[in-house]
Amino acid sequence: MSEPQATRPPPLRSLSGIKPTGMPHWGNYFGMIQPALRLAEEGTGLYFIADYHALTTVRDAQRLRDDSYGIAATLLACGLDPKSTTLWRQSDVPEVQELTWILSCVTGFGLIERAHAFKDARANGRDVGFGLVAYPVLMAADILMFDSDVVPVGKDQVQHLEFARDMAGYFNVQFLGSSCHDSEGAWDGRGLKFPKPVVQKAGAVVPGLDGRKMSKSYDNHIPMFASKKDLKKRVMAIVTDSLALEEPKDPVGCTVYELYQLFASEAQVAEMAAKLRAGGYGYGHAKLDLLAAAEDTFGVLRSRYDAWMADRDALEAVLQEGALRARSIAAPVMARVREAVGLPARPMGG
Ligand code: ADP
Ligand code: TRP
Prior knowledge:
Blueprint: E1 13-18, H1 26-42, E2 44-49, H2 51-54, H3 61-77, E3 85-89, H4 95-104, H5 109-114, H6 116-123, H7 130-144, E4 150-153, H8 158-176, E5 196-199, H9 228-236, H10 255-263, H11 266-278, H12 283-309, H13 312-341
Parallel strand pairs: 1-2, 2-3, 4-5
Helix pairs in contact: 3-12, 4-7, 4-13, 7-8, 9-12, 10-12
This protein binds adenosine-5'-diphosphate and tryptophan (TRP).
């Protein structure tokens, strides 16, 4: 007689997207890429290149294409295994646009007006394009389209995650008369599933050259695979106070030290802190130590990145295969949604 099988919970499905707007930087790596790839190892990983989202700002077709390959190559270089993890381009899964429309029909403008990006644009008197208004709805569709359990993102994306949950709730209540989740958050399989954000704790916000959040938009970022020469230039440009070499320095609040913590072991970090406090160790020394530690982490990854970038056909093959798998997950969810709202059933993927 066979032993009764212990019922194991199904593996967590984690999903995340990254915009193809230039080469990813250290903040993207520690805030999103690294935690996302770790999660993918624990369950089912779904990762896509958010090219529709990039279109809110990018106006150069060749750049969009190149940067999309660049993101794919980065994720693969960082260890994404395309056999076990699905990687695709957002625009290769048209179901997402269909769900975006349906979600926009249940979303009030009050929610959109609370969105940080929208509020910032308005406060700065910038013209608010409809793409910016629709941005959180498209992002909710990305997430809800695949019954995602967890969404690893940096701190700045948490509001978008909350919006995705809100929109799933509006959809479920308006079309099915219930949130479809119990008080513990367990889903009953109808409507749209609520996702959870996973925010990286250590290094939740990676500082940039000027100590503000590292971001392409502040031009204070350090690209992951910059050439050694450019990397050195960027690291040497990190802003510090002007204490002389021999003076003791406080590691707390020192950007070089904060960045070093992302790469170095505990012992190495303690050593740098002690050297800074003791004096006789300048910021220039600390920057060289940071550079060496970063090279230890990114050196090997950079060669793998270069190899993938030199083979666009191989990248395209990974993305096409990923799109097929992603569409096969999206199709039954879309069928459920169409049924719930009263749209006719359609053949798979049609
Ligand atoms: P950028 O601000 O440079 O345009 P994105 O907005 O494209 O970066 O961010 C892509 C992902 O990387 C998001 O999940 C975001 O939260 C994360 N991320 C970006 N910058 C940082 C940072 N400085 N620290 C931690 N995570 C970050
Ligand atoms: N808005 C995200 C960013 O700027 C990118 C993104 C698009 C995303 N769709 C997503 C992230 C879905 C997680 C899940 O970084």
